[in-house]
Amino acid sequence: MAEVEVHTWEPNSNAGKPLFALAEKGVPYDYHYINILDFEQHQPEYLAINPAGTVPTMIHKGKIFTESTPMCEYISAAFPGESFVPKDPKERYRMRWWCRQTDVNAAALSVLGWHSFIGPMIRKKSPEELDRLLARIPTKERRIFWSTAAKATFTEEQLDGARKRIGAWVKTMDDRLSQSPWLAGPTFSVADIVAFANFYALPMSVPEYANKENAPHYIDWLRRIYARPATTETFKQSRSLAQRAFEIKEQLEANA
Amino acid sequence: MIELYHNGAAAASLKLLIALKELDLEFSGHAVDPQTLQNWSEAHRKLAPQGQLPVLVDDGEVMNESQFALQYLAEAYGDHRLAPSDALGWYDVQAWLNINEPALGPNVSLIGWQQTTSAEARDAYRAGLAAVPGREKQAGWGAVLQDAEANEDQLANAREKTAQALSRIEAALAENDWVAGPDYSIADISTFALVRTLPDLLPDMVNRTNTPRTMGWLERINARPAVKAALAAAGGDRYDPPA
Questions:
Q1: Which residues in chain B touch residue A66, judged by CB atoms under 8 angstroms apart?
Q2: Which of A43, A78, A113 marks a domain boundary?
Q3: How many interchain CB pairs under 8 A, A with B?
Q4: Directed axis angle between helix B225-234 and helix B11-22, to 10°?
Q5: Which residues contact B207 (CB under 8 A, 6 or more apart)?
Q6: Local structure of residue A116 (DSSP, 8 states)
Q7: Confidence of residue B144 (pLDDT cuts 50, 70, 90)
Q8: Are the C-beta atoms of residues A184 and A91 closer than 8 Å to each other?
Q9: Which of A84-98, A115-129, B29-43, B77-91 has the lowest mean pLDDT?
Q10: Sign for the pseudo-dihedral over CA of B40, B46, B49, B50
Q11: What pLDDT shows up at residue B213?
């Protein structure tokens, strides 16, 4: 048994943050796969370790961690190897600012994700089964979130609005990355881990914005993170997203 | 040179004022009044494009996310007086702020704003805000969930979230003297700024019987010289419309 346990879904969005961060440190961990498409995060066994029913959860030396971004700062400080929290307090502020903005903009991206991927999979369940699964969600906010998500069908206008919002966000990242190699400044940081975990597939989901002509610095930043051994190691463990990730990586390398 | 653009004793501003006083830092303060939409002025939007308050500026670095500006003060000037030095303690402080600032911030603001303003004043404020050009509308999930939650009774929802946060505070104070661990930290400062007026706003919920530990903790923080100085600098209790 490894020193660290991670209970999470795929290396994607919040669920993926500690996986990428632990791999950067070369820390082995036990990966307990929680299939959120089957609502396993609302099963009693999972709620026993994380009563809010969110992924990820990390356990280290008996301590339970449930906040995904602070978890990455902890991983940086608690294990030997290169730190990914900058020393300069102003750079730290920028790192956290980029993490927060990533979370805000990832919400627009999830509209597309739900529309094309998660929503259709969940709607394969019978209405009775779905109601039973939704009733088990522990907090009201998460219940509203998942009920809305499970039943949501988006209008073309909403989908287009989400795409435009992500397009603007790609431009924001690109501008920043034209000034410094990494989001917080000269060094690779938690901000890059968090943004990559959310935006690694944009060349596939919004190719009209996330391309070399429109956002060359963002595309180069993606390529550099895909090239990190930790990224490859992490995607190798993915059950359903590895193929997509490695396809994007190949395309980025072919076009570099 | 540190500058603080703030709206007095409103919680997000007050927490930075307290931290500055606790750390004995020199700063120049600039009052910005969101009730008259001063936070949407051209000058303020250069610092805070979406009208955010407070804004901390240190040596040219503009910080308009107050949670991280507070962490900045503790890390840049605190020498561990306002935050633990170990990884685990720092995680606990960050996790506390992550969970409790969004749970209390908009809800206490809504409750206070509703109780201290007239319906006419609120309508006038909303009309003024609607006329501000270039405000970013909620997008994506924000908009979807806002629609879903608009059907809820907003005030009842705010009271429920506040009650849940108070249970977390009571539980934390049963384990330690301070909310995020054995030592006074920015987690206490932030939460104090949000909770300090609740015994007046919600006397049935926050009182010696229901929340005895919270009451004692509030007294201990109120007695701190830096907190007294910050409150004096901030002016009277203040509830601005939720951002």
A1: 95
A2: A78
A3: 87
A4: 130
A5: B199, B215
A6: I
A7: low
A8: yes
A9: A115-129
A10: negative
A11: 98
Q: Are residues A54 and A164 in the same domain?
A: no
Residues A118 and A220 both lie in one domain? yes
Cα–Cα nearest to A235, from A256, A250, A218: A250
- The per-residue pLDDT for range B183-207, each reduced to its tens digit, is 999 999 999 999 999 999 999 999 9
**Confidence at residue A115, expressed as pLDDT on a 0 to 100 scale:** 79
ipTM over 0.85: yes
Whether the CB of A100 is below 8 Å from some CB of chain B: the reply is: yes
Token pair, residue B153, equals 């009774």
> Mutating which of A79, A84, A96 best tests the B interface, going by the most B Cβ atoms within 10 A?
A96
| DSSP state letter for A64 | E
Rounded to 10°, the helix A190-199/A13-25 angle is: 130
List the alpha helices (DSSP H) in A114-241: 119-122, 127-135, 140-151, 156-179, 190-199, 202-205, 216-226, 229-236
Which residues in chain B have Cβ-Cβ distances shorter than 8 Å to A88? none
What would the DSSP string read from start to end of B95-150?
Answer: HHHHHHHHHHHHHHHHHHHHHHS-HHHHHHHHHHHHT-TTPPPP-THHHHHHHHHH
The pLDDT value recorded for residue A47 is 93
Place of tokens 């979406």: B50
Interchain CB distance below 8 Å, A97 and B68: yes
- Structural domains of chain B, with CATH: 2-77 (3.40.30.10), 87-224 (1.20.1050.10)
Please return the burial class of A160, using the count of CB atoms within 10 Å of its CB with bins 0-12, 13-18 and 19+.
exposed
Kindly state the tokens that stand for B215.
């009451």
Contacts of A77 in chain B (CB under 8 A): 87, 90
Helix (H) or strand (E) holding A201: none
Residue A53: predicted pLDDT: 92
Counted domains in chain A: 2
Regarding whether A101 and A54 lie in a shared domain, the answer is no
- Tens digits of per-residue pLDDT, A171-199? 999 999 999 999 999 999 999 999 999 99
Of A67, A77, A147, the CB nearest to B87: A77
Strands A29-33, A4-8: pairing is: parallel
pLDDT in the model for residue B168? 98
Contact (CB, 8 A) for A184 and A191? yes
Task: Tell if the CB–CB gap between B90 and A74 is shorter than 8 Å.
Answer: yes
Let me know: does B84 contact B95? Beta carbons within 8 Å. Answer: no
Nearest CA in chain B to A92: B72
CA distance A111 to A105: 11
Q: Answer yes or no: is pLDDT of A244 > 60.
A: yes
Mean residue pLDDT across chain A: 93
Q: Do A165 and B71 touch (CB under 8 A)?
A: no
Note whether A144 contacts B76, CB cutoff 8 Å.
no
